[in-house]
Structure formats: C-alpha cells, structure tokens
Design brief:
This protein is α+β, with helices and mostly antiparallel strands. Helix content is 26%, strand content 25%. It has a 5-stranded mixed β-sheet, with helices on both faces. Strands 12-20-19-17-18 form a 5-stranded mixed β-sheet, sandwiched between helices. α7 packs parallel to α8. The N terminus is likely disordered. Its EC number is 2.3.1.180.
Length: 406
Amino acid sequence: MAAASIGFVPPSTRPEIRVRNLASLRVFGSGFLSNARNSKRVWTRCCSAAVEDPVEGTSSSSSRNRLPRVVGMGSKLAGCGSSVPKLQISNDDLAQFVETSDEWISVRTGIRNRRVLTGTENLNGLAVQAAKGALEMAEVEAENVDLVILCSSTPDDLFGGAAMIQKDLGCKSAWAFDITAACSGFIVGLITATRFIKGGGYQNILVIGADALSRYVDWTDRGTCILFGDAAGAVLVQACGGDEDGLLGFDLNSDGTGQRHLNALAKDAEPEVISSTNGAPLFPPRKSSYSCIEMNGKEVFRFAVRSVPLTIQASLDEAGLASSSVDWLLLHQANQRIIDAVATRLEIPQEKVLSNLANYGNTSAASIPLALDEAVRGGRVKKGDTIATAGFGAGLTWGSAIMRWG
C-alpha cells in the first residue's frame, strides 16, 4: 500500500517531483523510490520470521530465507522432458472392437498409434518423469525450483495434482498449483510462468502439461476414441536478462458459447433416497461423475482452422515478426488436417512444421511439450530457434506464443 500511495502524490504538494521524471523512478518493495538511471533492476525482499511447520514432515515456504527477487526479468526455455505410458494401441487394435480401420483413421486424422495408461501407471508418475527430464536438461536441482504449474484437465486427484508432483520431485522450496484449460492448458501455463518471473521475481518454474483423456473416452464411439492418448511433457522456464527474453509475443482467448461443441460434463447418478415426506430437497445429494468426452468434430475443426492462424498472427504482430521469420510451427497435436491448414494459411512450409501426432494422438495439454521435447532431443530444434506455438480446445479456449528456444 505504501508503494501504491507514493505514485498518487499530487505534484502540487510535492514540487520536488516532476511528472516528466516519474518514468525514471522505481518503487522498491519497502516503499522507497530510487532513480532508475542508477539502478537497472528492482529488488524486492521476501523475508519473515521462522514459523513452525503447519504439517509434520512438510516445509514452510514462509520460514525459509529467500534470495532477493529481481522483478522485470525476461524468461527463457532452459530444458524440456516428456513421458508416455508403455501400452501402445494402434488403429488396427481399435478396429477389433469398433467399426473403423487404419485407413479410415489415418486419412481423417493423421493418427496411427496412441499410448494409454494401464496397470500401476498414473498421470502423476508421467508428470514427474517429464519434469525430471526438463530439470536434467536445464541442469537445475529440484530444490532450486520456485514454482510448479501442472496443466491438466484429468489429474489423479479431483483437487489437483501439482502439490503431489512438487513433493515427489523434491522441490522443497517451491509452491504449486493446477491450471485447467484442456488442450490450451500448456500455453496458458507457459505464459503464466513468464508473468511470475517478470512480475514476481521467480527464477525457475516447471510447467508440466499432462493428461489422461483415455479415462473419459467412450471406446465404442469411433468419432472420439480414435483421437485421444495419454502423455506428459514439461519445460523449465528460467529467469534471464531482458535482452535474452525468449517470450517475444503472446495472445490468449476464450469463448464459452462454443462449450457445447466439446465437453465432458458432470452428471448425477440417481439418489438412493427417491422421496421426501416434508417437502425438503432430496437427501443425500446425488453422487456426481463426469460423462465421456462429447465433441462436434466439424465445428471444432472449423473453429481451429479459423481461430489458430489469427491468434498466431496476433502474437507475431506483437513480436514484430513475419511468419517467414519462424523457424518452427508447433501446434497442439489434435488433427493433422488442422495442422496442415494452419500452416498453409500462415504460409509456413511443411518442413518447418513439427508433428508427432501419428505416434501419440491428441494428448491434450501434453501435446506441445511432448512434441517439443522430441524435436529438441532429436536435434531439429536448436538454441536460438524461433517457435510459433498455439493451443486450442475445450472451453472454447485458444492462445499462442512466439518463443525462442534456449
């Protein structure tokens, strides 16, 4: 509050401060002003007295001594990782229990295989493995992570999985939270991470996209069961100097009127008590679960082909770049026809398009970091490459970012 009040002191009451000089002043966390000509960084200190841990065996973030936070920093992608389930289901496998064929699926979607969680595997395990890969590539220890963001619509726990992943990774100095934005989730998480670095002074942030849509697929519906698979992908977003900032531009959008075209709605089972003698509502409440994924494929296709080029162009405009400056186009892996149509509209040649859809299907929030990790480890994406990436899906939500790798 002190810092906020300083900025509104009328010039007439403080003649020594001129309006033309306000741009050169910076506000410190303590509420003091400093001349920006003599200070390139804004330091805010986060410190408090040690307190007893609220739960035995856990660490209290308020009790540790943080280094001063540097606000206004840039962000860069320092590492990536991915993980997929062991079980692979091919188009021919699907044809054994639903009326379809490899040709029918591959021609319409570009998908030939997908991975599905089975046995003792769970989404948390995939997310942890993907995050470990990102940390290893970035050469960052788990205890130096400040924040873990899990982008998922299908966590193992209804209340979210980020905190469990933070615990399993050993990120003792981090806090964690979940983002639910379906197939746009990773883009939302990525941009959120950069804002915590720029506005909050965070240094190392894990952004994990992980989904197990196989749990909500009607395996008798050939319109949806052919599309989805399970996976996890992660990136380590790291603070850097402003001149190294890897986020060149971004754009985010949502339109709830399109929710009817792609959803998995909560549904109530019949209650055990079916009558009431006093006119009160039925009790106990109905037990709730979620329906299988329902999708109007034609409408979703039209939405994606129309909206994705526009959001990427908006991000390119913010970055001051033309599509010809893009080294790689990396879209959410939903349908090869969508990927091809967007590349054509943006006039990006096919040799610059990253796609692993054929091997994994639509893995929702995991699809972009999964494809990125394979491209980086395969030697295609190199340090300094410019990547135009976009996510789109249920909500409806869509967004894009222009990022520089490394």
